[in-house]
Amino acid sequence: MTVVVPPPAATVDAVARNRVRRAGRRRAVITVLAVLVVVAFAASLMIGRTFYPPGDVVRVVLGQEVQGATFTVGRLRLPRAVLAVVAGLSFGLAGVTFQTMLRNALASPDVIGVTSGAGAAAAFAIVFLGWSGTAVSVTAIVAALAVALLMYALAFTDGVVGTRLILIGIGIAAMARSITSWVLSEAGAWDFAEALRWLTGSLNGSTWEATVPALVALVVLAPVLLVLTRQLGALQLGDDTASALGIRVDRTRVVAIVAAVGLLAFATAACGPIAFVSFLAGPIAARIVGPNGSLLIPAALVGALLVLLADLVGQFALGTRFPVGVVTGVLGAPYLIYLIVRTNRAGGSL
Amino acid sequence: MTLAPSPSPTPGAAVAQRLGSVRRPRSVRVLWLLVVLAVLVAVMTTSVAVGSRGVGWSEIVAALGGSSETIGEAAVTKRIPRTVLAVVVGAALGLSGAVMQGVTRNPLADPGVLGINMGASLAVVVGFAWFGLFSATSIVWTAIAGAALAAVFVYAVGSLGRGGATPLKLALAGTATSAALISFLTAVALPRGDIAESIQSWEIGGVGGASFSGLRTVLPFLVVGFAVSLLSARALNSLALGDELAAGLGERVVLARGVAALGSVLLCGAATAVAGPIGFVGLVVPHVCRLLVGVDHRWLLPFTALTGACLLTASDVVGRIVARPSEIDVGIITALIGAPFFIAIVRRQKVREL
């Protein structure tokens, strides 16, 4: 029989100090990331074929007339940059939600088929039904939810098992991709630019009409996930532990899935399934923040930063203008190796 | 291979039942062999007869005899290489998948799922764009090299960490790798307008552009691949018992595994070089064949080749019929058939085996 000895005051102090320090690091990281996102956003408004100084850009954003800049910045670059931020935040949030829930860094929605499902539906609605705007977004979200629910139903035997869900998702992703390819080849001439948007994601030709629904979805759905922060953290400990902590496991999971899928679908309807952003954002955020609390906000910011930077690189750093999804897709490969090698060294299992 | 049934009643009964379900009497196997051959002849005939243009039997017979005077006969003449290509590629992919599943002892192994076909595809496009490789033979070599690199990479990545190469890790590593490879492929092809035009055929496989000259180029590679793979049957039977037991039976485990993997990579690399990346044939076919003839690789491997040929040819016919007057690439059809099958296999597996 062991007697529980209350820890000495010094230990309590040390733990408390440590906790404060860790919370401080998280705050610092979030602040730095937010500043970087703003800088990258500003840069993507200024840089282009013509460079506009910050003063011009600010005046355009405030609604004043500036020779030349009003059209270039206001009509071309602003929707593109806003969509980059919105899509990045959405993909980052949704990705880290899935990764946390399924307790697997590889289980991001772009690997397991939810994003491809939304992309296939959006492509179908645009090519075959001739729809645009919100109708496309709605089609995408219906399809993505259907995919997520189908996956959940197929994986459900004595409760949902993470590994099975992931593998089923891989199968569904393959189907969705092939449907997208079929839709695109049916569209008559294989329009390469359009095809790339729906296969890898692209911000080319962004308009306010496409951006606004994604923005609204972000404003509505992001708070839902942020409210679930504590529950999602508990789910990471495993279903049994989470239930013991008083979390309603299945309800939390369903709400989180619906919110994350909504974010994904609206973003995908606007700019296609930008490759690997959901996959990369969470682990990168985890690396920067360390084990210091929820990853939702850091991952969202990392996602936005990724999309903004990848789009800048894709547009200007290389000889050819690459769509953003090609850049993020190429980034994903070395990161995958790194992730797996590191997991191996840490002795964890994927 | 001999497995003595255990005399103890409860587990022994289970083992005997399991053996009963995996070993088939010779008569059953021969019967299935005849059935599969008949199906193959039937789908080949259909493949020659059916297309966007309807033709009569007399025209088909005339065209098979070498005549191409009427439009119908000319259409059939164009369908003959296509059919042959579908048969050859299907056989290669089916066999390749069976060997891969045997080598990795993994029910989800498939040249498409593991990203190996996409590796071959990327290598070919890189060869076009950066090294000016346009000769038919160099394309095949490049494709095989790309397939081998992708296979080694995915297997290495998938077998890191605890538990070795579990189906889950292999499938995830393969999916993520092939997504990355597609991005690379696009990035390589995009600045080159001349290649970007034909990029679709390197992202989705099809047998539409078949010609006998293309077939002739890959034929030596395929023949070697078929021979190496089929000769690995006995080794794969030993490997199926587990590495320790196989070593105990006198099998050189690493060598046997390497040789079989080489045969499998040759097959899928060469198949991708002529037809582009086609997934899921190598996944579906071995599972179906195991149900028909059991798990003995000496029967299973030739059977997967025949069944793969049936499946790919039939998928190609379906792709030509359902979307008339246009056609759906066979790679799309196999994914639509194969992915639900993949899901069904996942659902049947016990969780700890994933």
Automatic annotation (TrEMBL), chain A:
Record localization: Cell membrane
Record keyword Transport present: yes
One Gene Ontology biological process: siderophore-iron import into cell
Topological relation to the membrane, as annotated: Multi-pass membrane protein
Keywords: Cell membrane, Membrane, Transmembrane, Transmembrane helix, Transport
InterPro entries documented for this protein: ABC_BtuC-like, ABC_transptr_permease_BtuC
Family named by the database record: Belongs to the binding-protein-dependent transport system permease family. FecCD subfamily.
Name recorded for this polypeptide: Iron complex transport system permease protein
Species annotation: Blastococcus tunisiensis
UniProtKB/TrEMBL annotation, chain B:
GO MF term (any one): transmembrane transporter activity
Membrane topology: Multi-pass membrane protein
Domain of life from the UniProt record: Bacteria
Stretches assigned to coiled coil: none
Keywords per UniProt: Cell membrane, Membrane, Transmembrane, Transmembrane helix, Transport
GO biological process: siderophore-iron import into cell
Subcellular location: Cell membrane
Listed GO CC annotations: plasma membrane
Transmembrane segments: 30-50, 83-100, 112-133, 139-158, 170-190, 210-233, 254-279, 299-318, 330-347
InterPro entries cross-referenced by the UniProt entry: ABC_BtuC-like, ABC_transptr_permease_BtuC
Family according to the record: Belongs to the binding-protein-dependent transport system permease family. FecCD subfamily.
Name used for this protein in its record: Iron complex transport system permease protein
